[in-house]
Design a protein that fits this description.
The protein is of the alpha/beta class and 84 residues long. It contains 3 helices and 3 strands; from the N terminus they run αβαβαβ. It has one domain. A 3-stranded parallel β-sheet has the order 1-3-2, with helices on both faces. It is globular and about 35 Å long. The mean pLDDT is 75.
Length: 84
């Protein structure tokens, strides 16, 4: 489902941002890995998927990493953040 939403948003606009809030850190990790793999395997089928940036944010990541991801999310053209 995440992948379908991401693809729909990406087709609709070249500068879309999606934040998916989940209830647990484990869920963030699971969905981040799942979506990463889906995007990686479909990149050969559609060149636009390669432009997507995927981020994860949660409390167990070092503050420096969370800040870096947040800044990259703000400045990138099309991205998805999976957060708790």
């Amino acid at each position: 489902m995440f992948y379908d939403v991401v693809c729909d948003c990406q087709r609709d606009s070249s500068q879309s941002k999606v934040i998916v809030f989940l209830s647990t850190q484990d869920s963030v990790e699971f969905h981040y890995l799942l979506l990463s793999e889906c995007l990686r395997t479909s990149a050969a089928d559609a060149a636009t998927d390669a432009q997507l940036q995927l981020f994860k944010l949660h409390g167990d990541l070092p503050q420096k990493v969370n800040l870096h991801y947040s800044l990259d999310f703000d400045t990138s053209a099309f991205q998805v953040a999976v957060a708790v």
